[in-house]
Specification:
255 residues, alpha/beta, Rossmann fold, seven-stranded mixed β-sheet, 44% helix, binds S-adenosylmethionine, transferase, methyltransferase, Methyltransf_11, methyltransferase activity
């Protein structure tokens, strides 16, 4: 499963996931959800997706490529959703389970270990640009959703798949291309919201992320794997800051 993800990306999503769990152990459980939101989903973004996807208490949510489980845990804490994470990275799934108590299954978004028509809501946040077969991933999300089910996406888009300075393993779709793929895989796209137009995460959320990052740097700063993972994160940060890559929240309904 780990071979689905290029080596540098695996460092960011697997090795660092294990390190993050240990950092949160040191700093306190209130750091866990912000530290585990690795797709740049802020509380405002999660609020919007939860509202558009109709997440209410007891609603089952499959967070595909859910990483270390931050968004899933936010949905459980703030909306009473009943989440499961699917992610190919064993370290991410371990962290979702052990740090946040979120059920997490190691699996590929292009061959989901979930029954057809079994979930009312899927999220897939910051994942589409990390997979090569983007139509295949959307088709799988459609397969596991009940008819009329809701999909919440956070998609990073660009004018070309690999703009100069792109992180390893990323292939950015265009926004129009993403909407066309959604239609082709059986979805009716709904609203599109630019991530940049949403309020920043509150200072308390950003401070907790900064404390976890500082703890990781203290503990692993000399490890070349830390430097490689940091470089991946810096690259996407630079592209977003420079406007080459844009984040969008999309809501779609399974036809
Ligand atoms: C930017 S992270 C986002 C994590 C999480 N969704 C969040 O917002 O915090 C991208 C995630 O996509 C996962 N991923 C990569 N290839 C995948 C695939 N083929 N199927 C499902 N997830 C995949 C990675 O392991 C990683 O956890």
């Amino acid at each position: 499963m780990a071979d689905l993800v290029p080596e540098r990306m695996a460092l960011e999503f697997d090795t660092v996931a294990d390190w993050t769990r240990r950092a949160v152990d040191e700093l306190g459980a209130d750091h866990a959800i912000p530290a585990a939101c690795r797709g740049s989903a802020s509380p405002a973004a999660l609020e919007l997706l939860a509202r558009e996807c109709g997440l209410t208490p007891g609603v089952r949510l499959a967070d595909v490529g859910g990483g270390t489980g931050g968004p899933a845990a936010w949905a459980r804490e703030h909306r009473g959703a009943v989440p499961v994470v699917v992610d190919p990275m064993p370290g991410a799934c371990r962290t979702a389970r052990e740090m946040l108590g979120i059920p997490a299954v190691v699996g590929d978004g292009n061959a989901l270990p979930l029954a057809s028509g079994s979930v009312p809501v899927c999220w897939c946040l910051g994942v589409l640009c990390t997979v090569e077969d983007q139509a295949g991933l959307l088709a799988e999300l459609h397969r596991v959703l009940v008819p009329g089910g809701a999909l919440g996406l956070l998609v990073y888009t660009a004018d070309e798949p690999r703009p100069p300075g792109a992180p390893d393993g990323n292939h950015f779709p265009t926004l129009d291309g993403t909407l066309a793929l959604l239609r082709a895989t059986g979805f009716a796209p709904g609203t599109v919201t630019a991530l940049a137009g949403l309020p920043d995460a509150p200072a308390s959320w950003r401070d907790r992320i900064a404390r976890v990052d500082a703890q990781l740097a203290r503990t692993h700063g000399d490890d070349p794997r830390f430097a490689a993972a940091e470089e991946q994160a810096r690259r996407i940060g630079r592209l977003v800051d420079g406007g080459t890559v844009e984040g969008h929240l999309l809501h779609a309904t399974a036809r």
